[in-house]
Design a protein that fits this description.
With 283 residues, the protein is an alpha/beta fold. The termini are far apart. A hairpin with a 5-residue loop joins strand 4 and strand 5. The chain has a single domain, classed as Carbon-nitrogen hydrolase (Nitrilase/N-carbamoyl-D-aminoacid amidohydrolase, 4-Layer Sandwich), CATH 3.60.110.10. Helix 1 packs parallel to helix 3. The strands form four sheets. It has a six-stranded mixed β-sheet with strand order 5-4-3-2-1-16.
Length: 283
């Protein structure tokens, strides 16, 4: 079965209303070009480094502008709309980095909270502590669409292959990695990590990204891309600004790739021994 998918590249700012309008314009462009599934980046609703300013515009799911607009777009255009993530206020005072999938009738299929928090110190002086404000998710998720089974992840999750393997073993044929990768880590690892996750699971992978210099001063890597189960890049955006990356997917390619390299079937359980060496070493 073949169908068209799209990854929307954005440069979200601090104003959720403007971001929602930009998202809607790009989703409409993708739908007009035949996409039946459209994915937006991580933090579609706002890129805001100032936590107090972010909290000032946060809403719960029922009041969130991006959630409402995505539901409306999905129903109006008759497509699946996947909000890669947006910041959602939790009842406990923390924030969820939460993705949403909406069906062609506008109903919510499911949500996914980012499991792995980006708590790192980079050698260019950047320091990030996502866990200081965000509550990590605990539930991996796959969703069965009429044309394929979708597995969910967000940004830093891409560095944890066990998540993608779990989803592939549960039937995921398309893996998703909406992101807001930093420029430094993106230049080093973005493409190779995405292609590795696709290859090792014999799955398509769709990664919509934030791109460029944002209003709050941070810079994201962009290069949104769609990858096939053999690791080939079917479409890729540049490193700055908006883009709509599209590809036609033949889901039979998943079965073909997994037949050629049946590593999902060939995996074995094993134990680990830790050996302590003693004595001198001759060289």
């Amino acid at each position: 079965m073949t169908f068209k998918v799209a990854a929307i590249q954005m440069c979200s700012g601090v104003d959720p209303q403007k971001n929602a309008d930009d998202m809607a314009r790009l989703v409409r462009e993708a739908a007009a070009n035949g996409a039946s599934y459209v994915q937006t980046p991580e933090m579609t609703g706002a890129i805001q480094k100032d936590r107090a300013a972010l909290r000032a515009v946060l809403k719960d799911e029922d009041g969130d502008l991006i959630v409402a607009r995505a539901s409306s777009l999905a129903g109006e255009l008759g497509i699946f709309v996947h909000i890669g993530s947006t910041a959602i206020a939790r009842a406990d005072g923390k924030i969820a980095n939460r993705g949403f999938l909406f069906a062609p009738d506008g109903t919510r299929v499911c949500s996914y909270d980012k499991i792995h928090m980006f708590d790192v110190d980079l050698d260019n002086g950047e320091s990030w502590r996502e866990s200081s404000a965000y509550e990590a998710g605990t539930q991996a998720r796959v969703a069965s669409l009429p044309f394929a089974t979708l597995g969910f992840a967000i940004c830093y999750d891409v560095r944890f292959p066990q998540l993608f393997r779990t989803e592939a073993l549960a039937g995921a044929e398309i893996l998703t990695v909406p992101a807001a990768f930093t420029r430094q880590t993106g230049e080093a690892h973005w493409e190779i990590l995405l292609r590795a996750r696709a290859i090792e699971n014999g799955a398509f992978l769709i990664a919509a990204a934030q791109a460029g210099v944002h209003e709050d001063g941070r810079e994201t890597f962009g290069h949104s891309m769609i990858i096939d189960p053999w690791g080939r890049v079917l479409g890729q955006a540049g490193g700055a600004g908006e883009a709509v990356v599209m590809a036609e997917i033949d889901i039979a390619a998943v079965k073909a790739a997994r037949a050629k390299i049946p590593n999902l079937k060939n995996a074995r359980e094993f134990s680990l021994d830790r050996i302590a060496a003693s004595g001198g070493v001759s060289v």
